[in-house]
Structures are given as C-alpha cells and as structure tokens.
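Ex. 9. Protein: Glycosyl transferase.
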Amino acid sequence: MLRSEIIDDAAALEALAPRWWELWAHSRTATPFQCPAWLVPWWRTFAPGELATIAVWRGDDLVGLAPFYLEHTPSGPRLLPVGISLSDYLDVLCFPGIEATVAAEIADQALAINWSQWILPDLPAGAAGLTITHPALEAGQLVDHAACPVLSIIGADALAVCVPARRRRQLRRAHRAAGRRGCVSVMPVQDSPKAFFEHLIRLHGARWAGHGDGVLADPAAEEFHRQALALLAAQGLVRCWLVAIDDAVVGAYYGFHHRHRAYAYLGGFDPAYAEESPGAILIGHAISEAAREGAREFDFLRGQETYKYGWGAVDQWTMRKVWTRSMAQ
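Predicted structure tokens for Glycosyl transferase:
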C-alpha cells in the first residue's frame, strides 16, 4: 500500500534528504539534477512560489518524489518543477519496478493542488515523468523541448575512437600552442570546491564579458552554485578541472559524473589565452577521464552550440509535457 503527502515547508523538504538520497540512488532515470544536493540549494536560494512537493511512501520507505512548486501568474497558477531553468534535465523519482503505480499516486496528489497548468519541461528520454497518467487528466500536450548534444563513448581511448579527426588535430594544435606559451598542467580540484569556484567565477565572467556576462553574473545563481557545488562534491558527483600555463590559471571546467554518463555543465577561460584554446584542452581531458571511469556517454547538455558537434556529439531531445485545466475543476 502506498501513501502520499504534499510537502509545503522548506525545512521538511531538507529533512527528507537522507531518504531522498536513497531513492535517487535507486531510481533508473535519475540524473545529478534530481538529487537533494542540487534541488535543496535551488529552493533555498530562489523559492519563486509555494512549495508543493509530492512524496510517496511505502511503509517507511520513500518510493516516489516529485519536487514541485506553485507559481502564481496573471493567467493562473502553474505547477512547476523545483530546479527549473538552471537544471538541464527535470524529472520525478520513482522506485524501480513500481514506476507506474508511483506516477499514478503523484498524479492523484497533483490533482488536489489548485493549478491551471501543470508543466514538466526538460524531460529526458525514458523519464519517469513521461509515464504520468490519470483518469481525471487528459493526455496533455507533449512536444520536443531542447536539444542536448551527446557524444557516445566506446572503449577507454575515447579521443582516438569517438572524436572526429579534425577535432583531434585542433586539440593537438591547442596543446602545442599552450606548450609554447609555458608549462601546461591540468589539475583535478573536486576536493577543493571553494577554491575551484573562485576560479570558475573569474574565468566564466571573463569568457562572457560583453556577451551577456554569463549565468554566474546573477548573484542568486552564484550563491546557488556555490552551495550546490560543495554538496555535490561531498557526494563524489562533480568533476572539476583547472588548466594552468606556468602560474596562470587560464581555464575551468565544471561537470558531473553519475553511473555511466558524464555531464559538461559550465566552464570559462581567460580570453588572453584564446589562441591556446584552454576550453578545448579541458573538454578533451574531461572526455578522456570520463572514458577511463567507464562512461558510455559524454553529455554536453542543453544548447546547440557549434563546438559541441565538432566533438562528434549528436542531438538527444528532451520533452515538455503540459496539462491544462479550468480553475473550476
């Protein structure tokens, strides 16, 4: 027998973290964007509406979690996922083997919430959220939402096997150019998230200066990432590297690794070293390390920037599902 509840208090959401981690670890479709280390700081920092998270229990075990909130708009209240905008993938969590039952329970509780639109964006292929149905819900609108270019990894030598020859030549030229400038070193820094983040802020800002200034230019986004990075690092989920030429740190890479997938989330470099391509050096290093750790896919995440396809990535599309109902229901 399942029971469910709506969590509308931030302290109660944070208190759920130990059980939440257990469910996340078991969920077949979970990504780092569904774990409490990501979503708790998001809510703590932004809290753009009324928390309306649905928790599903089987006895004392948490078997389903739908982190939602209610946003009030002039056209009516919208039920949205916690983590929207900054998360490349969004989904609900369901315990394996009972996904359909848990999804139905989530839908039942969602119908008790006063919304005019229920929106699930950025659902990856196979997402548990795609299975949500209910007799009182119409089918909903399902459309392609965003492209996430992904490089398939075959074997431990991914650069030689999976990356196009042209990109490999460009990468060799970048290493030679950097070597002419000075001594090149790529340093793992996931054990020092605070120090890494200061470099990331500086280099991301330098990379995007005059071009929108980048996501970290927003003080709230900076604070969110500062909190999330430390929590993710404590769980061993982040992969952070810096590249230095002599004593100058000229590039930063911020990514994740979970199960057999690596995620390239954010980066930056010093434009004074653009000819040395520190960003490419770091991505090449990240792909090699992902392969060494057994990753089968290197996910460049949302956005169709040209450089991603140069590495051999191919689009995988997320879906957006929307239910609409009149407020009289």
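Check your answer against this statement. The CA atoms of residues 28 and 112 lie 27 Å apart.
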